[in-house]
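JOB MANIFEST
job_type = single_chain_structure
chain_count = 1
residues = 125
[input]
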Amino acid sequence: MSSRPVLRVRKSGAVLVAALIALVGTIPLAGSSWALSPLLLIPIAVLAWTWRAGTDVYPEELRVRALFGGSRVPFTRITELAPDDRGRVSALLDNGNVIRLTGITRDNLPQVLAASGHPVGAGDQ
C-alpha cells in the first residue's frame, strides 16, 4: 500500500473562505459577552470539517474522511460510482451499502477514476 494518496479531493475552497469570514465576524460578538463565546465553536467546527473532510484516492482504495473518523473502501468492494441529482457521488458496495464520497462530484469523477487507474463503470453519464 502506498503511503501517499494519488489524489486528494476536498470541499470547495469557498466553504473554507465562508467559515473564515464567519469566524472573523463572530469574534467581536463573542468578545462582547462570555455567554456568547460558544458561538465561536460553530465557525471553528466548519473550518475543521472543511480542512479535514474529503476523499483520498489510492490505487487500491478510497479513504473517505469526515471531521471525526473515516473509512477505507477497497475498489474490489465498489460495484458502482453513481452521481445523484445534485451531482454528489456515492459508492455502491458489493454488500448493498452506500457510502457518500465527500468532495467528489459528477464534474471531478473522471479525474478520480483516472487517478485510481480503474476503468469507468456503471453510473457514468
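[summary]
Residues 7-116 form a domain with the PH-domain like fold (CATH 2.30.29.30).
The chain has three helices and seven strands.
exit_status = 0
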